[in-house]
């Protein structure tokens, strides 16, 4: 396996002492917002740093790039991967009201585009599989676990055997070893996925555990292991990815499972509410 290319900020720190004063000025501009590299031409970038285009050209060659365009391609790849550092393009002159409106429109578009892409037959099949599964395990790492936790909190009300993984202090093998065809795994994999997700899904596939994969629009390699894949639009208007469509799909999915569970789901909800009152757990 070839080594991953060193990103811009890593190269700058590696060669900092060898840069001229003018090159260091350009480096400081890029370290503050590397995303500018993906958006601007070499001339625009040089002007923003107050240096010449020739200085900018020497700067990127000094860092080991074949050309400015090679560095720019790498920055765009980092943006596409979802790196917040590269999605940040510096201070914006847009007024706050304008930014808020753009953000709202983007969130609405993510919701609309995601729900339009959902296929009723696929969704129904997922709902039936979750409701009928002996055990449901929900897996997610980093920010994907936040979405996994949303699913867990809702499904726990209507399904008697739900687990959120990975759990602190346990190995994953200890939690997966007894799973089989009667169970179901819901795997959440948003961009900037950890390799652990693909490894876990490969292990689940070997155990013949049916899998529902909830992902961003690109889905990535883990999708090949899943029986069902639900893709959500996550592009943000600012620095961070949007999760509004993900939350909406999770709400819909769990609500449909509750409806499908019928009396068994209602009985479990009723029993939980009685215990809430006895334990004085909620206001």
From TrEMBL:
Record-linked PROSITE patterns: HTH_RPIR
Ranges of residues in domain HTH rpiR-type: 6-82
Record InterPro entries: Homeodomain-like_sf, HTH_RpiR, RpiR-like, SIS_dom_sf, WH-like_DNA-bd_sf
GO terms, biological process: carbohydrate derivative metabolic process
GO MF annotations in UniProt: carbohydrate derivative binding; DNA binding; DNA-binding transcription factor activity
Pfam families given in the database record: HTH_6
Highest taxon in the source lineage: Bacteria
The protein's name in its UniProt record: RpiR family transcriptional regulator
């Amino acid at each position: 396996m070839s080594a991953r290319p060193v990103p811009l900020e890593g190269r700058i720190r590696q060669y900092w002492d060898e840069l001229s004063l003018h090159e260091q000025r350009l480096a400081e501009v890029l370290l503050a917002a590397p995303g500018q590299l993906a958006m601007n031409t070499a001339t625009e970038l040089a002007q923003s740093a107050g240096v010449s285009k020739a200085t900018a050209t020497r700067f990127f060659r000094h860092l080991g790039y074949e050309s400015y365009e090679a560095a720019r391609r790498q920055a765009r790849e980092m943006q596409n991967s979802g790196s917040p550092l590269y999605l940040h393009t510096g201070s914006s002159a847009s007024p706050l009201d304008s930014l808020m409106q753009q953000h709202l429109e983007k969130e609405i578009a993510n919701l609309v585009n995601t729900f339009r892409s959902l296929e009723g037959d696929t969704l129904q099949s997922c709902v039936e599989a979750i409701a009928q599964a002996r055990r449901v395990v929900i897996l997610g790492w980093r920010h994907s676990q936040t979405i996994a936790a949303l699913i867990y909190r809702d499904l726990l009300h209507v399904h008697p055997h739900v687990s959120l993984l990975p759990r602190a202090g346990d190995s994953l093998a200890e939690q997966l070893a007894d799973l089989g065809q009667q169970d179901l795994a819901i795997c959440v994999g948003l961009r900037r996925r950890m390799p652990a997700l693909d490894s876990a899904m490969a292990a689940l596939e070997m155990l013949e555990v049916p899998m529902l994969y909830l992902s961003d629009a690109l889905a990535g390699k883990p999708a090949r292991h899943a029986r069902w894949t639900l893709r959500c639009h996550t592009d943000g208007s600012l620095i961070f990815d949007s999760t509004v469509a993900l939350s909406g799909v999770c709400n819909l999915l769990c609500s449909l499972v509750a409806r499908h569970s019928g009396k068994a789901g209602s009985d479990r909800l009723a029993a939980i509410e009685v215990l809430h009152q006895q334990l004085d757990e909620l206001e």
